[in-house]
């Protein structure tokens, strides 16, 4: 999508029922338009990395999800162990996703064992 197509999409959204219901959303984009449009110069794959949830926020969300389901821990070591195992699992999933995005078949992917 280029600048012109993005502006057309914003105008279409502004004219829609949702745009009329949430004019502050349109105003937010209009006020930040000069700061937003340079991102359209990047290829879509890179744009996705830039505008998707920050990796740190994503990790924090996933760790909160893991600890929330437990309720409480018998000691600090148990909490640290659970978080460490969760981070290992999250990183394994992310590594598999990166391999898929690179287009490598499963037979050629380098599966690293956990320590």
From TrEMBL:
This is Mutator family transposase. GO terms for biological process: DNA transposition. It comes from the Bacteria. Coiled coil: none annotated. GO terms for molecular function: DNA binding; transposase activity. Required for the transposition of the insertion element. PANTHER family: MUTATOR FAMILY TRANSPOSASE, TRANSPOSASE FOR INSERTION SEQUENCE ELEMENT IS1081. Residues 96-115 are annotated as: Disordered. Belongs to the transposase mutator family. The keyword DNA-binding applies. Pfam families: Transposase_mut (PF00872). Keywords: DNA recombination, DNA-binding, Transposable element, Transposition. The keyword DNA-binding applies.
């Amino acid at each position: 999508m280029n600048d012109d197509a993005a502006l057309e999409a914003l105008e279409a959204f502004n004219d829609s029922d949702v745009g009329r219901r949430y004019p502050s959303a349109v105003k937010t984009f209009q006020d930040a338009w000069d700061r937003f449009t340079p991102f359209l110069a990047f290829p879509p794959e890179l744009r996705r990395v830039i505008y998707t949830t920050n990796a740190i926020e994503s990790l924090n969300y996933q760790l909160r999800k893991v600890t929330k389901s437990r309720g409480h821990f018998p000691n600090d070591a148990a909490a640290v162990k659970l978080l460490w195992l969760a981070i290992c699992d999250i990183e394994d999933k992310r590594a598999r996703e990166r391999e898929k995005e690179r287009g490598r078949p499963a037979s050629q992917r380098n599966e690293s064992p956990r320590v």
